[in-house]
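Entry 14. Structure prediction run on the chain below.
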Amino acid sequence: MTPLQRYIAEEIATDHADGLIGRREALRRLGMLGVGASAAVALLAACSSSGDQANTASTGSKPGASSAPPGTSGAVAATAITFPGPGGRPLQAAWAAAPQPRGGVLVIHENKGLTDHIRSVTGRFAGAGYSALAVDLLSELGGTAAFTDPAAATAELGKIAPDQFIGDLRAGIAELERRVPGKKIGATGFCFGGGLVWLLLASGTPELAAATPFYGPFPENGDLSGAKAAVLGIYAAKDERVIASRPTAEAALDRAELTHEIYVAPNADHAFFNDTGPRYNPTAAAEAWQRVLDWYGTYLG
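Output returned:
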C-alpha cells in the first residue's frame, strides 16, 4: 500500500473504532481500497484495542453547535469550472472570486472528493477576501459527482498516484495565478487534503507563499527545502493518529528554515472543521478559521 492508501485505511478503521461506522461497512470500505480480508480484520482489531475509546467522536450536542459555521455569513457562492490540467487533461473545480482579492487560496479536499462542504469553504475564503479554487482530484474519472457511493470515491482516490495529485494541484496553482494576477497564493487542505498540502510543499513549490494544512499526515522522508511558504500547521489534541507525525513535520520545517507555527486545537478530534461530519467542533473550528485568516493576512496580503 502507498502511504496515502495506508492513511485512508487507518482512517476507516478509526471511524469504526469510534463507532461512526459498523464493522460490516468498515470491511466493505477496506475491501474497496484493496485491503485483504485477514488484513482488514487485523487492522480493525488493532485500532479498536489501541485505546478502547469507542465513540469518542460523540455526535451529541456541543456548545455553539447551533451557530453558523465560521466564515459562512459572508461567503461567496462557488461556481463549477473546468481548466486545462497536465497534458491538456481537463480538470473540474469549484471557483469563488473575491470582489477585491487580497490573494488566492488553493483548497484541497478530504478523501471524499469535491463535496458541498469544500465548495462552501472555497466560498468562505472568497468572502474573506481570498479568491479560492478547489480542484476535483477525481476529474479524470468524471469528477466526484460521478460516484453515487462516497466510499467508492474514497477508494478511487486511494488508487491515484501521488505524482498525479501533485500535477493536478500545481495546475490549480497556475490557474489561480492566472485568475488573480500579481497576488500571492496559499494552500489549505483538510485530512487527506492536509496531507497533500504537505506533499505539495515537499515536492518543491516556491509559488506558494503560505500554507495551512489541517490535521494532515506528514509524508515519509518529507524534505521541505524546495518550499518557500510560511506554514501554519493545524492539529487536534484528540487526533493521536495524525498528531504523531507533528514532530517530524516540525523538524522538516526547522531544517528548511521556513517560517512556521503549530496550533493544536484543545478538546477537538480529527476533522473538527467539517461542519457536515460527526466530529465537528464549532469552538475549535472558529478559532482555527480566525488563525488561518490572520496567517494569510500576514503572508498573502
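Confidence is low (pLDDT under 50) at residues 51-64.
Filed with the rest of this week's runs.
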